[in-house]
Write a structure and sequence with these properties.
184 residues, alpha/beta, Rossmann fold, 17% strand, globular, binds flavin mononucleotide
Length: 184
């Protein structure tokens, strides 16, 4: 594979200063330091409609076209997401649903690194298997490593740096693994 590996980075949380956007940004910084070309896809800025087959049939909204083009360009993904009611937040699932529609298979054979943070003790341990299942169904390769940041209120500095060295190392190892696979 020639050139810098291209990664799309998404947060399943739309709010501006959520824990998962901080986690995504920490991962993005690591991936960039390893030479990756990272596109941060802000789902709030895209403001996608909820998937509707009639809207799709009538002609794709510009936000959906943009999302699909950005996912097409990516060779790999960083996805940091909260857990909503033990599963994938609707906004993230909706984005994946729009991007999954033909023509083409936008996730197929691409690598994905999953991570998540919650204020509670589980650190998205119940959400990540669901996200893994959806991406695997779409033909993506999901890295076996998982990054779980529990007790988010205490886990980050105000600047979004992970305080715990062990968690920092997990994230760095996951990004090294993602970039190494994309460099092939
Ligand atoms: C609709 C909804 C459902 C939630 N369900 C869960 C849950 O199942 N497990 C959990 O640990 N936290 C749950 N939470 C709390 C989120 O983990 C918490 O709001 C978190 O800070 C959201 O991530 P963010 O900081 O990146 O926005 C839920 C929050 C919302 C809004």
């Amino acid at each position: 594979m020639s050139g810098a590996p291209r990664i799309a980075a998404l947060s399943g949380s739309l709010r501006a200063h959520g824990f998962n956007s901080m986690l995504r940004d920490a991962a993005v910084a690591q991936a960039r330091a390893l030479g990756a070309d990272v596109d941060v896809v802000d789902l709030r800025a895209l403001n996608l409609p909820i998937y509707d087959g009639d809207v799709e049939a009538a002609g794709l909204p510009a936000s959906v076209v943009e999302l699909r083009e950005r996912i097409d360009k990516a060779q790999g993904f960083i996805i940091a997401s909260p857990e909503y009611n033990s599963s994938i937040p609707g906004g993230l699932k909706n984005a994946i649903d729009w991007a999954s529609r033909p023509p083409g298979q936008r996730f197929k054979e691409k690598w994905a690194a999953l991570m998540g943070s919650t204020p509670g003790i589980f650190g998205t341990a119940r959400m990540q298997p669901h996200l893994r299942q959806v991406l695997a169904f779409l033909g993506a390769h999901v890295l076996p490593t998982q990054v779980h940041i529990a007790r988010a209120m205490e886990a980050f500095t105000p600047e979004g740096v992970l305080k715990d060295e062990a968690r920092q190392k997990e994230l760095a190892a996951q990004m090294a693994s993602l970039v190494a696979r994309l460099k092939g």
